[in-house]
Design a protein that fits this description.
two-stranded antiparallel ribbon; alpha+beta; 51% helix; globular; 15 helices
């Protein structure tokens, strides 16, 4: 017999509260990985264990709901074999097996969401939901048991997992359950969530600037100007990504045809976004800001591809080049914070009209112990793309960089030439 509306509402409310608590705990996690593997596992243990159990129960609830059964009736069902009744089919922790019993529309919705999520969180290498659930379920569906007892069991028996992905997937199934209980509720895809969250922050920035600048005076319609001049016909995720990308390189939003007031709105929004990036955890909003700003090893930025409904990389503008030794004529600068000098160089190059090309893939932890020198930055002529100056860095030496002047210095425009001269004088 089917569950009553009251029974459904009670269970869905429990899912919603439990999921929210797990998500809050996840976003308080430090973003770094522990040096000691066992400590890193222990940090994730509570969240993964809770998310695994919550997801399992949520899927079982949905199977029962789709089958017009109570959860108890579902759990007591046996599989039918040629010799009679066999094992209890749904008394299992195997997420992959449970997922296979959902209706096709339910599975398709969850798969689409995971596809969007993984394209943003590309550090998760498993690119489809079926394979992810199979991986975390482990051999013979023992993944949950392995995680429950990993504080005392050997690490080698532990199947791969991701606390971020587990909580996110659970959230999708909570929304599916809510949408079936409440006609006004629907599953919000990741693309929509990010647009909403970014737009809410932008609207807050408009309100703050209007309050600070205009007070009681008449103020222009900044919201309408933003739609006409800023977003135009572009996808909002792409506009926000372009602004974040330019700000990461030149510390300005880079949009020239805005009113002074709207320009202040964008600056205020960027300031808040930068502060958001300092908090703990790795929510999708934070990871979007990180990826769009090029603060990961993966790409210079990202964009939203409406055809594939996935995020796609904006490749590094500079090809990977690494050498065991520095190029001839290289000058090495040792500083506590080299990024400030390099930021000033990029601003000088932008002022000159030079093109700035970068490749920070060397920050990938997988190559952090390499001693090779990587070409991370190039200043070049905007038309001919002839190289003016290149920067070389080593992953293990974060306190230094080397530069190579690629043109005769008399041919280099003054702001960049002055940057070179200043560093040379400091070496004396």
């Amino acid at each position: 017999m089917p569950m009553t509306v009251r029974q459904k509402a009670e269970k869905v409310q429990r899912f919603k509260v439990a999921y929210t608590r797990a998500k809050d705990a996840l976003e308080l996690q430090p973003r770094f990985q522990e040096c000691h593997p066992g400590s890193d596992i222990a940090n994730k243990w509570g969240i993964i264990t809770a998310a695994y159990s919550g997801l399992e129960q949520n899927i079982k609830y949905l199977i029962a709901e789709e089958s017009s059964l109570t959860v108890e009736e579902l759990i007591n069902q046996r599989e039918h074999t040629s010799s009679g009744e066999g094992n209890f089919l749904f008394r299992t922790h195997n997420l992959s097996a449970l997922f296979s019993h959902l209706e096709n529309n339910t599975k398709s919705l969850a798969r689409d969401y995971y596809s969007q999520y993984q394209s943003l969180h590309s550090y998760i290498e498993i690119n489809n939901l079926d394979d992810f659930l199979s991986e975390v379920s482990g051999p013979r569906g023992k993944g949950y048991e392995r995680w429950r007892y990993t504080l005392i069991d050997d690490e080698e028996q532990l199947p791969r997992n991701s606390a971020n992905a587990m909580v996110e997937i659970w959230g999708v199934f909570v929304e599916i359950a809510l949408s079936r209980l409440d006609e006004c509720s629907r599953v919000e895809m990741l693309e929509e969530k990010l647009v909403r969250e970014l737009d809410e922050g932008f609207q807050d920035s408009i309100t703050e600037i209007e309050r600070a600048v205009f007070e009681e005076q008449f103020s222009p319609d900044l919201e309408n100007e933003a739609e006409v001049r800023l977003f135009r016909d572009e996808h909002k995720l792409d506009v926000f990504a372009k602004i974040l990308q330019h700000f990461a390189s030149f510390k300005s939003h880079g949009i020239h045809d805005l009113s002074d007031e709207l320009s202040k709105v964008v600056d205020y929004w960027l300031k808040n976004s930068a502060c958001f990036g300092l908090t703990g955890g790795m929510s999708s909003l934070r990871w979007f800001i990180e990826r769009a700003s090029g603060r990961t090893p993966y790409s210079e930025s990202i964009r939203w591809d409406a055809d594939s409904n996935r995020f796609v990389d904006i490749a590094w503008s500079l090809d990977v080049v690494c050498n065991e030794t520095l190029p001839q004529g290289a000058i090495t600068i040792r500083k506590t914070n080299p990024s400030r000098s390099l930021q000033k160089l990029k601003n000088c190059a932008n002022e000159c009209g030079y093109k700035v090309r970068e490749n920070r893939s060397y920050t990938n932890p997988l190559i952090s112990n390499k001693t090779d020198y990587f070409r991370t930055l190039e200043i070049c002529e905007s038309v001919t793309t002839n190289s003016v100056l290149t920067i070389w860095q080593r992953p293990a030496r974060s306190h230094e960089f080397s530069f190579v002047v690629e043109q005769h210095e008399n041919e280099i425009l003054p702001p960049v030439r002055n940057w070179i001269s200043l560093l040379r004088r400091r070496l004396k």
